[in-house]
Amino acid sequence: MAYPEAIQQLIREFDKMPGIGARTAERLAFHVLRVAPEEALQLALAIRDVRKNVRACSQCCTVTAADPCAICADPGRDRSTVLVVEQPNDVEAFEAAGFRGLYHVLGGVVNPVEGIEPDDLTIDRLKKRIAAAKIAEVILGMDPDFEGEGTALVVAQQLKALPVRISRLARGIPAGSAIEYSNAAVLAEAVAGRRPVEGRA
Fold it and tell me: Distance (Å, rounded) from C-alpha 108 to C-alpha 47?
């Protein structure tokens, strides 16, 4: 017997989420059916509210409820240093590690297999920030995996004509790992031990 169309639609929507396969999507759909109506409604309201109230910061492109975000608006930050990361959750990881500069969120990595090209990222906005502000150093803080390394090379190439020092995180982060899963001490050491990108001062 086929599920009612409403259940099938809910399964299809869960199945679109990253890391959720068909079986997990089915389990989530039936979980929504099992919980109290108020709890299911809270999920729906949370989804509505996050879509309504969260936006990208006009300066660093991280997620925020206010524009600019609290980090960009903080006068106590080191405004001469910008740490470029892949996703907003990387910002949270570096904040826990004690980084006190500014950030720039690319919104992903270059991945031609998935159709993500450099123009799909916020590299142009980063270049405009560097040109408009007194930024002395850009730290490339992408994951040390194949896509992250490739993206770092693309960003470094696009920034090379600008009067800014470009550095990479030290190798305290194991190759192939994800920044969001690194502990604060490892990330702090990686920032402190950053190195210049080859071919740059």
Answer: 22
Helices 5-15, 22-34: axis angle to 10 degrees equals: 130
Give domain status of residue 30, yes or no.
yes
Supply the pTM of this predicted model: 0.78
User: Considering the domain boundaries, does residue 59 fall inside one?
Assistant: no
CB proximity list for 191: less than 8 A, separation 6 or greater = 83, 94, 97, 99, 139, 141, 169, 170
Domain that holds residue 19: 5-53
Q: Which residues pair with 82 in a beta bridge?
A: 102, 138
State how far the Cα of 62 lies from the Cα of 57, in Å rounded to an integer: 5
pLDDT in tens, 104-163: 999 999 998 889 999 999 999 999 999 898 899 999 999 888 899 999 999 999 999 999
